[in-house]
Each structure stands twice: as C-alpha cells, then as structure tokens.
C-alpha cells in the first residue's frame, strides 16, 4: 500500500468504530468540539494563580501554538487533502464543517501545543494533559473531519515546537521584563491581599 492507502486504511479502522459502537459517537462529538473550552479555562486558571512559573508556562504554550501554526501553514502549502467526508464514501461524519485543506489538523496543533507545554512544566499532571490531546486527535478522526496523517503531523509539529520554546523562551530577558511590567499594572488594578499578623 502507498502512503494515501495506508492513511485511508487507518482512517477507516478508527472512524468505523462509531458505526460498530454507536455509544462512542456522542463522546467523540463532545471531545472533538467542546474540550477546547476546558483548554481555554486551564490557561485562564493557570494565569490567574498569579504564580510566575505558571504564567511563564502559559506564555510558552502561546508561543508554541503560534509557531506550530506557522509550521502547519507551511506543511499545508506543501501537501493538501480535503476532509475525509469530502473525499470518501460512507464516512461516519458527526461534525458539519466547510470543505478545505485538512492537513495538518489545527485542533491537534492547538491541543498538543498547550498540553505538551504543560507536561514539560508539570511532570506530575502533564501526562493527563497529553492524554487529553491524544483523545482530541483521535476524536477528530472518529467524527470524520481528519485523516490519521493530519493528526500525527499536527502533533509532531507541536511537540517539536514545544520543546524548542521550552528551551529558549524562559531564558529570554525581554519575556520576563514584559511579564513583570504586566504584573506591576495588574497589582495596581487588582492588588493581592497582604497577610497581617495577629498580635
């Protein structure tokens, strides 16, 4: 089998699970469409803990996503394929989506950018975030909007970007300077409660 045939073969193996086990469909739909709100909430919660390390982590995750998206656009210009539901018959399509280039998967890039960064900064809870990213990637295949290759390439781009950002960005003085400037303004608007001693 050539590359495209392998891609289609594994797409069928995963996507057809929804036909064999219909109970998977609502779960796949929820994970594919709504876990993005969990990711957004996680970034907000980490940010507003007002801990410096957490904020550097969110900054790195954001940098990673931007860089990975740029690499994703380059990859998309080198190779293109439409969504499986637009190219194949009898796809278990659970999400309505405009037909365009689905390579690589933007959802996968987003989740792996943040979840891989979380793992690098938080070794204990990081694997759970990566498990979420993997589930999102699989769900995009289960709902019929991406091929396995779309997901795999998106994940690899994000993982590579996250590793590079993790090594470089926390060492950049201007990042800490900008963050300190922001925190000074935040403290002026939303001062933290100072602890008082009981005498």
TrEMBL record:
Pfam family, one: PAP2
GO cellular component: plasma membrane
All residue ranges annotated as the Phosphatidic acid phosphatase type 2/haloperoxidase domain in the record: 58-166
Organism domain of life: Bacteria
Positions of transmembrane segments: 27-49, 56-75, 128-145, 151-169
Organism: Brevibacillus brevis (strain 47 / JCM 6285 / NBRC 100599)
Sorted UniProt keywords: Hydrolase, Membrane, Transmembrane, Transmembrane helix
Protein's UniProt keywords contain Ligase: no
InterPro entries hit by this protein: PAP2/HPO (IPR000326), PAP2/HPO_sf (IPR036938), UPP_Pase (IPR033879)
Taxonomic classification: Bacteria, Bacillati, Bacillota, Bacilli, Bacillales
Gene: bcrC
This protein's name: Probable bacitracin resistance protein
UniProt EC number: 3.6.1.27
Molecular-function GO terms, alphabetical: undecaprenyl-diphosphatase activity
